[in-house]
Amino acid sequence: MFFGFTHGEAITSFYDGDYEQLLLDGGFNSGSSAYFSAGINAWKNLRDGKYTFPPFAQKDSNTHVVNAALSPLHSCVGNYIVSIRTKPFLLLAGISGTGKSRIVREFAFKSCPKYLQDKDGTTPGNYCMIEVKPNWHDSTELLGYYSRLGKGGYQFTKFVKFLVKAKMFPEVPFFVCMDEMNLAPVEQYFAEILSILETRKHPKNMETGKVDMTVVKTGTIIDARYFRELSEMPDAKNAQTGQPYLCSLTDRDIYLKLFGIETESDIDKEVGARTDLSTEGLTLPDNVVIIGTVNMDDTTHQFSRKVIDRAMTIEMNGGNLRNMFGGSKNLEYLPEAEQKEWQNAFTRQYVTADEVLEAHPDVAEELIKKLPAQLEEINKALKGTPFEVSYRVLNELTIMTGVMLDEGKELGEAIAQSVNNILLMKILPRIEGDAEMFALSKEKGYENRLEWLKAIAPEINDPADDAEPEGEETDEQAESVKERQQTAKEKIQEMIDRLDNQEFTRFWP
Q1: CA gap 406, 65 in Å, rounded
Q2: Sign of the C-alpha dihedral, residues 66, 69, 72, 73?
């Protein structure tokens, strides 16, 4: 289908509707004709202005973002992209073997430029897997530590080196996969990163005094003095103090030294000439996306509400098993034009709700009125429990709504989709308890708090449910169309059923 869409103009020009001949010429199975036809019809509809695809953020030379058409290749991962553009920390939860870590690699493959690609096509240069160990009880395994043994100095970890590398290529998204993230207590080994994520902000330009919307800064992860030590010349010491002399190292010099390489020609000169690492220290680069994979079983640790509150949680519990076949092609590098498209898709614009209001002044008053009202209704249903939400969730609900508006959605649809997502990604994962926890007095009108919450959750209509198939549809096609992400209403009903059956319920399977 995608081939038919992307090559619709050429196909209609040279084959004039004789798609069977095209398939034979290309060595394809002639039974694929229906899929080619669907793609070509989609191209014709787009050409004739019958529909457009929603936009995603793309950098512009004068402003922080402009809108551009979202290609159909993103449609299958829309929720992931929206979540990443809301906050660069995701949790992928679900049963083992559903492709949680694989999708992180897929994002890296699709957005990896040629100069970061490995020769054998196995590990993109913008991808790093961190294998979490059960004995991690502090951040030393992740962030490193200072040692006085041997030559001494700061012991830089794979994670820290990867962040330094990301600073050298700010236009490319870099993906960290925290594999089996909850094998160890997340609050202990990941505490500094959880705090740093909340310090993200657009800084002021020192020359103009205006907020620079193209840059996001955070607090310091690794102190600058440890990077300055890399510039020490131990054989040349000050005769009076005995201290070694320091040579001036740029960020590029530090990157080369950490990775033990002699040169790197693809680093932008202006970026490489900076001295941020030795003067300010290492901050969390805005082009880094941290994605943790999560299994909930007797070998793993529960997530506290403060961790869930700082992440976007997406549940992955598998789907149509037939869809596995052909998936290996997703772990391949793309042509440059498609790489750029994927790189732009992950660009983040907003850090605060106020920035959304400034970007959408025509609907700012409605956002100020409607979004808090939505969360207040949810808090009414959760009143008296430890599951109520506050400012952080409202801020991210507003940002997600802004992202939806940037994609061309109408205000009502953007709010409904965002509330649905925030329920699924931030509120429901916090909820667990027995029947007593969710009990309500009869005058409330609902059997329990979950029933009340279900009534509040927005109705989300899947376009695929309303689509009329062209021609006859096979069972496999029908199953594939029906496959979609659960809505908040459906998830709450699942939790209600579990409560009825077991007298206890929670979000996690």
Answers
A1: 9
A2: negative
pLDDT bucket at 41, cuts 50 / 70 / 90:
low
In sequence order, the 6+-apart residues with CB closer than 8 A to the CB of 83 are: 90, 312, 314, 400, 421, 425
Instruction: Please tell me the predicted confidence (pLDDT) of residue 387.
Output: 95
Cβ distance 93 to 311 under 8 Å?
Answer: no
pTM higher than 0.70: yes
**CA pair distance 116, 126, nearest whole angstrom:** 7
Q: Which two tokens stand for residue 75?
A: 């449609």
> How far is residue 502 from each of residues 426, 433, 497, measured CA to CA in Å?
24, 11, 8
Give the residue carrying structure tokens 């034979």: 24
The separation between CA 322 and the C-alpha centre of its own chain, rounded to angstroms, equals 26
Q: Which of 221, 31, 29 is nearest to 139 (CA)?
A: 221
What is the DSSP secondary structure assignment for residue 149, as one 8-state letter? Answer: S
Of 175, 137, 141, nearest in space to 156 by CA: 141
pLDDT digits (tens, 9 = 90+) for 411-467: 999 999 999 999 999 999 999 999 999 998 876 789 999 999 999 999 987 655 544
Length of the chain: 509
Q: Where are the beta strands (DSSP E) in 134-275?
A: 145-147, 153-155, 174-179, 220-222, 232-237, 244-246
CA pair distance 72, 55, nearest whole angstrom: 11
Pairing of strands 89-93, 288-294: parallel
Query: Furthest-apart CA pair in the chain: how many Å?
Result: 88
The one-letter amino acid at 480: S
Of the given ranges (17-21, 61-65, 145-149), which has the lowest mean pLDDT?
61-65
Beta strand segments in 38-87, E? 55-58, 66-69
Angle between helix 336-345 and 100-111 (nearest 10): 120
For residue 423, give the H/E element and its range: none
Chain Cα centroid distance, residue 492: 24
